[in-house]
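ARCHIVE RECORD
Type: protein–small molecule complex
Small molecule: protoporphyrin IX containing FE
Source of inputs: curated submission
Record status: active
Notes field left blank by submitter.
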Amino acid sequence: MKAGTSPPASRAAGMRTLVVHVLAVAATALVLFWCIGFRGGLAFRSSDKQHIFNVHPPLMLIGLVVIAGEAILAYRTFPASVSRDARKKAHLALHAAGLAVGLVGVYAVFKFHAEAAIPNLYSLHAWVGIATITLYALQWLAGFLAFFFPGAAPETRRSAVPWHAVLGLLVFALAVGNAQLGFLEKLTFLQSPPARLVGKYGAEALLINFTAVIVLLLGIAVVIATVNADSTRYTAM
Ligand code: HEM
Ligand code: HEM
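STRUCTURE (tokenized, with ligand):
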């Protein structure tokens, strides 16, 4: 093969990660466009308590889906010149950043509920949300202890890593699914009587649903870019 050309397999892998980056940028832009352009903007302190709520969707999406997705792909997206050790540190640090951003996002929605006198944890979205962020934090801690510091014995690491990868993808899928519930719940609030702030086919309704579809596609793209489809494990053909 000529210098500078990559084998077809890695070119396909490059395409898969490129799709992830494009969808990640699109999801981030869309959720910010919605919360700033249609919902009046983001603020931690405001007399309009909705502005405090508006911090929640972008931070959850950027932390637990966009940054988490990029963190999951960190072992695959860096050029070959980047060492395994550096990739591992990028994976660890990006997941820490995703978790921190997600925690601030959850804090914002609890602050909104407290200041607007709305009860906490009454919805499926809230329950799955607490489970998701807790499992994400536990996954990070387990990964840190097993693979970084103090680090488990080589044999234990070898048997733990497939579980780490599968459970990590499951937690990520929970975040994507719960973001879908969040978009649905918020749109339902906005369309409900008496105010009916958003029409059934209004521009904002279409924007929220379209954003949620992009988030779903992003989740699918991360999983497809991560898994190794291994034909040798199937024997019943
Ligand atoms: C992706 C990860 C997400 C997680 C882990 C998450 C987590 C949570 C949690 C724990 C609450 C409960 C707060 C409380 O009871 O005081 C909540 C509330 C809420 N979230 Fe999310 N959220 C996520 C994404 C989103 C998104 C993208 C939206 C889109 C609009 C959204 C909309 C809402 C709404 C409307 C509430 C308030 C009503 C309720 O308590 O269910 N969430 N979220
Ligand atoms: C919530 C946090 C985390 C999630 C969701 C997560 C998820 C994942 C996923 C999905 C993979 C498979 C990636 C692939 O096949 O390319 C993976 C691999 C791995 N992760 Fe994590 N991870 C997290 C935190 C950590 C931490 C803190 C460490 C500590 C160093 C770590 C170390 C590793 C290692 C060593 C691998 C194996 C990479 C390889 O050999 O290809 N992870 N992780």
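CURATOR ANNOTATION: The first helix runs from residue 8 to 38.
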